[in-house]
Design brief:
75 residues; alpha+beta; three-stranded antiparallel sheet; 3 strands; 47% helix; 28% strand; globular
């Protein structure tokens, strides 16, 4: 699987993990990184983060990112 395909899988996992919040994703295909911003129902950004391939290629590291983002949402 190419880095772009793996990034797409990670982006999908993040979007699904935070439903019903809106997840805006901006990908930089040249470097394989992407950023995501979680937006609540009022259009207010609640969390934003940039991920690099070493953070999303391994599923356990991606789960760590998701857990950290969830923690920031309840804080």
């Amino acid at each position: 699987m190419s880095i772009q395909q793996q990034a797409q899988v990670a982006m999908s996992a993040i979007a699904q993990a935070f439903s019903p919040l809106t997840c805006h994703i901006l990908a930089e295909t040249r470097k394989g990184s992407f950023s995501f911003t979680l937006v609540n129902e009022h259009g207010i950004a609640r969390h934003t983060e940039r991920l690099y391939p070493d953070q999303y290629l391994a599923s356990e590291r991606l789960q760590t990112v998701i857990a950290r983002a969830r923690k920031s949402l309840v804080a």
